[in-house]
Each structure stands twice: as structure tokens, then as C-alpha cells.
Design brief:
With about 575 residues, the chain is of the alpha/beta class. An 8-stranded parallel barrel has the order 1-2-3-7-10-11-12-16. The protein has a 6-stranded antiparallel beta sheet with strand order 17-18-19-24-21-22. The longest helix is centred in the first third of the chain and has 24 residues, at about 5-30. The chain starts with a helix and ends with a strand. It binds 1-deoxynojirimycin.
Length: about 575
């Protein structure tokens, strides 16, 4: 009889490889270390459209300061400010002409400092958008770069004598943008722009540009900000000359940015806008979390909308599992809607078509061949589904982020260009121009007609109504704050015995929380694997304070789009 020794060697090798793999995974899933952002509720707003204090039609820092009480009552931990630097506003402020300035339409440096001091007094942290990938073409640096090819600023941007063959690839705004390389008459060269042609990319192979970025980070940290929402991270660190579509990346730049930030404020956070795959994310977080501390989870967002469209959470569960691994001090930032389109580019064509059909069926609702330019409330339309989605968001294993106006269920204005549809002024009350401004002409029109008009959807009315979406969200925020296990605990998706239901369990320091959501519009029953809930007595959190026994194989009923959070006694 032959013993096939080579077969044993292979088996032993496989066992070894299996355990080696396990040990790296163990290293990455090491228990979360609490940081101030681990469970932070982040609120994004644009000063320009939030509150106008001087009646000129544009929101400003003084207006925002007046509204800090509102944000405090809502339970906001962190304000994320959209870009507020000087800008020609071709890309709603993401095209900056001075990294160190404050757009004079939004206020003065003193107004900014007063706002920072007032926020600090209320215990609210402030992070700011920072757009380091590109400047506006109206920035002096770009003007000098074009005017004189021997000027030091010329090498601050990315040039090519000939148009690269793949100039029609890697576009971020297809349909609006046609190329990533544009011919410049003055220099007779092509310059690279990942986004619009008026947003030339900076060249991070140039050490002076790296130093400039470090200087900007230091400058704002010294002004007291608690961190940055770093715009377009994969593009800051890409090398366009290695290809427009799949360029190589300079990850060391993120390590050095983190070091710079830490040298001024060790607690400050870098929250990255990086729409990347599960495979790629570890390079952005860095080994042991030495690069970005936080990243938006775009992947989960896309599969969330797909799952909502299908009334079946399977793909969402899978997406969450795929993004499970992260360093101990890193954290995901989850969101439903942001200031851009719902980006569905990572779905397959048929998955995307389904989401379009369900949530953005008209061509005017779709954008860039990949997304939906609508606010959440009109997209989902059903109040029960809207609430269920928020409950889901606040039960995700990360930090929840919402965009101003979403908490009251604001609508969109599809007559506005591109993504401006979701950037209309905040609706404070029923007075003229929604209490946003006393000027008759506002920076962008206030929504004054239809189901989402300011007469029907506004903060004042919803604050007075305990059944409003705003009251619901306030309550949700309060409940979430009592349960740090969501951002820090070990989580597991439980078998609920029903394909329309998603059940997620958190375990943390002897505490247990289970959140259950029904993705179907019709009532559904669930029952949890007995082992998973260990026969404990549970208390309902979101539907009252009733004690229930969810673990004994009994069936529990949820309404259509119903949900429930339970904690063990
Ligand atoms: C991403 C921002 O979210 C988007 O609004 C902007 O247009 C691009 N980056 C370019 O800065």
C-alpha cells in the first residue's frame, strides 16, 4: 500500500496556511479601541444654505452659530462643514481659490472663530471638508503655472505634452465631463483633472505640494478644528500618468498626512471619502490604523439601497460582512444620503436598474450613468420605510452620518443642475423663504411647492409634533447614545428564519443588543436561533419598554417595514 507522503505534506501545508491566515485576521479584528469618534453622530451641513443671519440671501457662520442650540438638541456630536473657502462656486465650493481663507459671503475670520468657540462650548466637535486633490483653475497657483512654465507652480500641477490615449477614461462626472486631460492654450500642454476641467489636479509627486498640504492641515488644526473630511482621497494619492482608469497610488502620503495631523492634535480625525472595495480599504486605514481613522462606507450604502429595492437584506448582510475587517482604532462612517448622488456604480447593471426603477425611475432623477440625485424622503416615499432606514443606519457597526434637512425629511428640486437638486436651503419654519433668509432672493431657491415645501416640511412644525420624523430621529439618537456596543462591540448577523428580516447582534462588556429590521412592506414574523440569544430576557427599545422573550423559538411579528431594538436584561 502506498502512503502518498506528498499528499500529507500538502494537507499539512494547507492547515498551516489556514492558521496563518486566521492569525492575520485575528490581528485585524482585534477588539475595537474606544475613540471619541467610534460612536459619534456626525451632521453635515453647508454654511451657505443653512441659515442666513444678515438677510443677504446666503447662509453664513453667524447664522450657523444661532442654530447651534438646534443641533445640540438633536444630539449632534460632530458638525462636518462643507467647503467654506473662497471659491468661484463652479462645484459648490469644492473648487477653491485659497486654502487659508473664508469665503466672504459666509462671514469673516472672526465669525468663524466665534462659531468654533460656541460649538466647543456646547461640546460639539467640528470637522471640515478639505479638498486637497485639486484647486480651482482660478487659483493663483494655477494661473502662475499656466503663465510661466518655469515658475515653481508649474510643477504643482500634472501636465503632459501629448494627450494621453486614455484621456476619456476614469471620468468622475460622465455625461458632463468628457475627458480627464484638457488642452491649455497658454502652455500648449494638457493638464490633468479627475473632476471638472476647472478643477486641475495637484501633483503630489512634487515635495512642495506635499508640504503645502501639510501646512494647510496644520493651519486649520491650529484654528481649532477637530479633523477633516478629506475629499476624494483615492485621487489625491493617485499617479495619473500610470493610467487614468486604474492608476497606482502613493499610500505613504496618507501616512505622512496622519503624522502631520497628529503632531498638532493627537485626537484629530481624518475621515476619508474613498469609495473603495473591501480589498482596498486596508491600505486606506493603514496597518494598525496609521492612515485614515475613518472612511465612509460607500459599498454598504449601495447594497443597502439594492436590498431596500428588493425588500431582501441578503446583499446588505454580505456587504457588511465583506467590510468587517478593520484596525482597532479605525471606524466606518455610515450614511443614507449625502450631498452628492446616490452612487450605485459598484452594483451590477441589473442591480442598478432595479434601484433606478424603484427609487429614481425618471431620467431626470438619474445622473452620471450611475446614480440618483434625490433626497431620501421623496426617494423612499413611504414614511414607514424612511423610519426603518434610519433605524437601520443607527444600528450599523460604525458612526452614523446625516446630511442637514434629512432629519425633517426634506425633498429635492430636480429643476436644479446636477447635484444641486439636494442642496436647497434648510427649511426652518413656515415664514417666507422657510426662515432661512429674510431676503427675497436666496442663494438657491427654497422648496416652496409640493409635498416637500417648507410650508409642509420644516423644523418648527416637526419640533412641536411628537410623531414627526424629527422627533423620531431625536429619539433614535438618544437611544443610540445609550448603546456604545454598536460602534465598539463584536457583531454577528443572526439567522432570523425569514429572508425579509435582518437581525444583528452586538456583544460588548457583558451587554447585548439585537436590532431587527423588516425589509418587506408586508408584516413578517421572525424567530432567532436560540443559542445566539442565550435565553436572556430582552427589553424592546424602539417600540416602548416592553419585556419580551425573543429567544425561545417563539415567533415575533413585525409590521411592514417594522423594526425593533432589544437589549438583554
Ligand atoms: C467629492 C465631493 O463630494 C463632490 O461634491 C465634489 O464634486 C468632488 N469630490 C470634487 O471635489
Amino acid at each position: 500500500m502506498r502512503l502518498y507522503p506528498e499528499r500529507y505534506i500538502i494537507i499539512i501545508l494547507m492547515i498551516c496556511l489556514g492558521s496563518c491566515k486566521q492569525s492575520t485576521e485575528k490581528q485585524e479584528t482585534v477588539k475595537a479601541v474606544p475613540e471619541w469618534y467610534s460612536n459619534a453622530f456626525i451632521y453635515n451641513l453647508d454654511v451657505e444654505t443653512f441659515k442666513d443671519s444678515n438677510g443677504n440671501g446666503t447662509g453664513d457662520f453667524n447664522g450657523l452659530t444661532q442654530k447651534l442650540g438646534y443641533l445640540d438638541t438633536l444630539g449632534v456630536d460632530v458638525i462636518w462643514l462643507a467647503p467654506f473657502q473662497p471659491t468661484p462656486n463652479g462645484d459648490d465650493g469644492y473648487d477653491e481659490t485659497d486654502y487659508y481663507g473664508i469665503d466672504k459671503n459666509l462671514g469673516t475670520a472672526t465669525d468663524f472663530q466665534n462659531f468654533m468657540a460656541a460649538a466647543k462650548k456646547k461640546g460639539i466637535k467640528v470637522i471640515m471638508d478639505l479638498v486637497l486633490n485639486h484647486t480651482s483653475s482660478g487659483h493663483d497657483w494655477f494661473k502662475m503655472a499656466r503663465a510661466d512654465t518655469t515658475s515653481k507652480y508649474h510643477s504643482w500641477y500634472v501636465w503632459s505634452d501629448k494627450k494621453p490615449g486614455d484621456a476619456d477614461k476614469g471620468l468622475v462626472f460622465p455625461g458632463v465631463q468628457t475627458e480627464t486631460w484638457t488642452f491649455d492654450e497658454a502652455t500648449k500642454k494638457y493638464y490633468f483633472h479627475r473632476f471638472y476641467d476647472f478643477e486641475p489636479d495637484l501633483n503630489y509627486e512634487e515635495p512642495q505640494v506635499r508640504e503645502m498640504a501639510a501646512d494647510v492641515l496644520r493651519y486649520w488644526l491650529k484654528k481649532g478644528v477637530d479633523g477633516f473630511r478629506l475629499d476624494a482621497v483615492p485621487f489625491i494619492i493617485d499617479l495619473p500618468k500610470t493610467g487614468s482608469a486604474n492608476p497606482k497610488h502613493m499610500f505613504d502620503l496618507l501616512t505622512s498626512m496622519r503624522k502631520t495631523v497628529q503632531s498638532i492634535n493627537p485626537n484629530a480625525v481624518l475621515l476619508g471619502e474613498a469609495n473603495v472595495t473591501a480589498e482596498e480599504n486596508k491600505d486606506f486605514f493603514g496597518t494598525n490604523g496609521n492612515r485614515l481613522q475613518m472612511m465612509f462606507n460607500f459599498y454598504v450604502n449601495q447594497y443597502l439601497f439594492y436590498s431596500l429595492a428588493r425588500e431582501d437584506p441578503e446583499s446588505l448582510k454580505k456587504a457588511l460582512e465583506e467590510f468587517r475587517l478593520k484596525p482597532a482604532t479605525s471606524q466606518w462612517a455610515f450614511f443614507l444620503r449625502n450631498h452628492d448622488e446616490v452612487d450605485l456604480a459598484r452594483l451590477t447593471k441589473s442591480q442598478r436598474s432595479l434601484v433606478f426603477k424603484k427609487f429614481g425611475p425618471e431620467s431626470n432623477m438619474q445622473i452620471y450613468d450611475r446614480g440618483i440625485r434625490r433626497r431620501l424622503a421623496p426617494m423612499l416615499a413611504d414614511p414607514a420605510l424612511i423610519r426603518m432606514s434610519y433605524s437601520l443606519l443607527f444600528s450599523f457597526p460604525g458612526a452614523p452620518v446625516i446630511r442637514y434637512g434629512e432629519e425633517i425629511g426634506m425633498g429635492d428640486d430636480l429643476t436644479l443642475q446636477e447635484r444641486l437638486s439636494v442642496r436647497t436651503p434648510m427649511q426652518w419654519d413656515r415664514s417666507a423663504n422657510s426662515g432661512f433668509s429674510t431676503d427675497s432672493i436666496t442663494v438657491r431657491p427654497v422648496i416652496g411647492y409640493g409635498d416637500y415645501s417648507f410650508q409642509k416640511v420644516n423644523v418648527a412644525d416637526e419640533s412641536a409634533d411628537k410623531n414627526s420624523l424629527l422627533s423620531f430621529i431625536k429619539n433614535l439618537v438618544e437611544i443610540r447614545k445609550l448603546h456604545p456596543e454598536i460602534g465598539l462591540g463584536e457583531w454577528k448577523i443572526l439567522d432570523a428564519g425569514n429572508s425579509n428580516i435582518m437581525a444583528i447582534q452586538y456583544l460588548f462588556k457583558g451587554k447585548q443588543l439585537i436590532a431587527v429590521h423588516n425589509f418587506s412592506k408586508s408584516p413578517q414574523q421572525f424567530s432567532l436561533e436560540e443559542k445566539a440569544v442565550q435565553g436572556a430576557d430582552f427589553t424592546e427599545l424602539t417600540g416602548g419598554k416592553k419585556q419580551v422573550n425573543i429567544g425561545n423559538g417563539g415567533k415575533i411579528q413585525l409590521n411592514g417595514y417594522g423594526f425593533q431594538w432589544y437589549t438583554a436584561k
